[in-house]
Amino acid sequence: MPITKDNDLCGKAKPSPRLILGKNKGVANAIVSLEHIAEGKKWTTSPPQVLDQRTCEYKPHVMVVPFGSPIDIVNSDRVLHNVHAYDLQNELRSIFNIAQPIKGQRTPIKSAQLKTPGLIMATCDAGHPWMSAYIMIAEHPYFALSDADGKFILDKIPPGTYRLKMWHEGVVVTKTDLENGSPKKYHFEEPYETIKEVTVSPNTEATVDFDLVLR
Predict the structure, then answer these.
(1) Cβ distance 3 to 16 under 8 Å?
(2) CA pair distance 38, 41, nearest whole angstrom
(3) Whole-angstrom Cα distance, residue 67 to residue 8?
(4) Phi and psi at residue 9, to the nearest 5°
(5) How far apart are CA 194 and CA 209, in angstroms?
(6) How far is it, in rounded angstroms, from Cα 87 to Cα 205?
(7) Which domains, ranges and CATH numbers included, belong to the chain?
(8) pLDDT tens digits along 42-80
(9) Cα distances (angstroms) measured from residue 144 to each of 28, 34, 118, 162, 204
(10) SS3 string of 62-73?
(11) What is the largest CA-CA distance in the chain?
(12) pLDDT digits (tens, 9 = 90+) for 105-129
């Protein structure tokens, strides 16, 4: 993805963060969750998790945050960033829009601003269209993010049969909005979603594999 602003810090181009493969082609940053589970381990909030802007990229690119927990937005760069977050469940409703011109600036996003569980997409409105991040506000404790090798663990699940959902963001750029010949905004294909049924027996482990087959 070409860099058209702040090249001295951001570089000339960046690889897309939207498909990261690890060992044996394991896929990182997939969100896996149990659907319609109403019992099990206790649900607790967490200390503030951090969405950092470092070398003109969001770190992490995908994160899972317990519902009711705050988020801190941090700018570790010496350039202006503007974090604009949208609710993907409600027709891209704007949730917060934060300008951070100062290196080291930290802005807390209180749990009251994150009123609805679900997926949030963040972009940078300060001329950095390649920057993107996804935040899952998890409504129960049975959410996991696949690691660098594509592995995930959900533990302490009551015995039963469940629907297990895998979500992964769209990878391919379908359209690019230009301004003076340079990319202003990227549009991507729809996310990938797969649901599998899994049965958890008492005192045993269940293994589920998902395949991400690109369109």
Answers:
(1) no
(2) 10
(3) 38
(4) -100, -45
(5) 11
(6) 35
(7) 7-200 (2.60.40.420)
(8) 877 778 899 999 999 999 999 999 998 899 999 999 999
(9) 11, 9, 14, 15, 19
(10) EEEEECCCCEEE
(11) 61
(12) 999 998 778 888 999 999 999 999 9
Give the span between the Cα atoms of 14 and 1, in whole angstroms. Answer: 5
CA of residue 112 relative to chain centroid, distance: 20
The overall pTM is greater than 0.85:
yes
User: Comparing C-alpha atoms, which of 167, 158, 165 is closest to residue 197?
Assistant: 165
CA distance 44 to 132: 28
One-letter identity of residue 25: K
Instruction: For residue 109, give the amino acid letter.
Output: I
Backbone angles phi, psi at 10, to 5 degrees: -85, -20
- pLDDT digits 0-9 by tens, 140-166: 999 999 999 999 999 999 999 999 999
Q: How many CB atoms lie within 10 A of CB 11?
A: 11
Mean pLDDT, rounded, of the chain: 94
Token representation of residue 79: 């350039």
